[in-house]
């Protein structure tokens, strides 16, 4: 089976890179497939302060670059391709891409998830420069500044409460006139003196020259708009978007067991319901989506894939 890989990893974010590192270091014939630039969501983060061992100067891009160096050092093969079809049943898995066909004894799915975007002008340009999708990652950058949280579900309100530990004021902007979060979470939010609420409203534009400086909000009922400007002394403020995440799962719908939101279900060995198929990182059903948890998933998936191969082949 010279043309069959021991492990093929789909995705080159922290989970995929960690899996490639552990698999190649274990002398497994390893291929990592990525459709674009490596790194996933973390590459848009200007500073990574909560990854163990990272230095203050570390950015998402530099952290991923070091991971890539390690993967290459241990000899993992890397290819850019867009996988169009997967055949995961049977001992040998087949992945069909635009550039070729790949066969493997095991597959590690590390396709990740992407935040659901607002879609307004300025959002993309100012992501990582005041616009964020992760309070755990970026809250400390907004110490004693004002912050707006877009959304009204459990995640939005919980993240808003977390942000009150850092920001001097947190305003939840919700398109309806009441929150969708659980009542117990709502009660905590309404009691928090740092919390404010902007009802029936959406954000229609984010402005700034290299950093968020103002934002335009629209009342959905009255149609009125107003522009909020950063405090002159602050120079900026934060916009945290929590209107959901979207798992990148199209390839696997109907083929792998998922939860109601489309995240792949695994056990603690990262095994899916299909023998020889593992999942790692943000594509998994899990309580915390961070670089550190993705890296841990990738390591476990690779080690368990190695054991699977030893017992199966």
Short summary of the structure?
This protein has 313 residues and is an alpha/beta fold.
Number of strand elements:
17
Helix content: 10-25%
How does CATH name the architecture of the largest domain? Answer: 3-Layer(bba) Sandwich
Q: What's the pLDDT, averaged over the residues?
A: 93
CATH class of the largest domain: Alpha Beta
| Cα end-to-end separation | 11 Å
Classify the beta-strand content into a percent band: 25-35%
Task: Give the CATH superfamily of the largest domain.
Answer: FAD/NAD(P)-binding domain
Cα-atom radius of gyration: 21 Å
Indicate the topology.
Blueprint: E1 4-10, H1 14-25, E2 30-34, H2 60-73, E3 77-80, E4 83-87, E5 93-97, E6 101-109, E7 113-115, E8 131-132, H3 135-138, E9 146-150, H4 154-163, E10 169-173, H5 183-191, E11 195-198, E12 201-207, E13 214-219, E14 225-229, E15 238-241, E16 245-247, E17 277-279, H6 291-312
Parallel strand pairs: 1-2, 1-6, 2-3, 6-17, 8-15, 9-10, 9-15, 10-11
Antiparallel strand pairs: 4-5, 5-6, 7-16, 12-13, 13-14
Helix pairs in contact: 1-2, 1-6, 4-5
Protein name: Thioredoxin reductase
Keywords: Disulfide bond, FAD, Flavoprotein, NADP, Oxidoreductase, Redox-active center
Domain FAD/NAD(P)-binding: 5-298
């Amino acid at each position: 089976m010279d043309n069959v890989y021991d492990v093929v990893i789909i995705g080159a974010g922290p989970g995929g890179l960690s899996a490639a590192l552990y698999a190649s270091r274990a002398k497994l014939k390893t291929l990592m497939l990525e459709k674009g630039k490596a790194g996933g969501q973390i590459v848009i983060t200007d500073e990574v302060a909560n990854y163990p061992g990272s230095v203050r100067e570390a950015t998402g891009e530099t952290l991923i670059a070091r991971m890539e160096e390690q993967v290459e050092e241990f000899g993992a093969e890397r290819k850019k391709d867009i996988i169009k079809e997967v055949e995961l049943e049977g001992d040998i898995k087949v992945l069909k891409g635009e550039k070729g066909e790949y066969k493997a004894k095991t597959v590690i799915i590390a396709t990740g998830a992407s935040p659901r975007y607002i879609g307004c002008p300025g959002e993309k340009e100012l992501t990582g420069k005041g616009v964020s999708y992760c309070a755990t990652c970026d809250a400390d950058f907004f110490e004693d500044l004002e912050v707006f949280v877009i959304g009204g579900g459990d995640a939005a309100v919980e993240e808003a409460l977390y942000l009150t530990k850092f920001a001097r004021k947190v305003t939840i902007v919700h398109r309806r006139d009441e929150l969708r979060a659980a009542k117990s979470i709502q009660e905590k939010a309404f009691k928090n003196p740092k919390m404010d609420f902007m009802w029936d409203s959406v954000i229609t534009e984010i402005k700034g020259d290299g950093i968020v400086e103002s934002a335009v909000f629209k009342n959905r009922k009255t149609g009125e708009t107003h522009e909020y400007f950063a405090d002159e002394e602050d120079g900026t403020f934060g916009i945290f978007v929590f209107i959901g995440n979207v798992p990148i799962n199209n390839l696997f719908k109907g083929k792998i067991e998922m939860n109601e939101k489309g995240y792949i279900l695994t056990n603690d060995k990262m095994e899916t319901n299909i023998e020889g198929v593992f999942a790692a990182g943000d594509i998994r059903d899990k309580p915390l989506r961070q670089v550190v948890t993705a890296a841990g998933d990738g390591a476990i998936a690779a080690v368990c894939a190695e054991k699977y191969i030893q017992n199966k082949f």
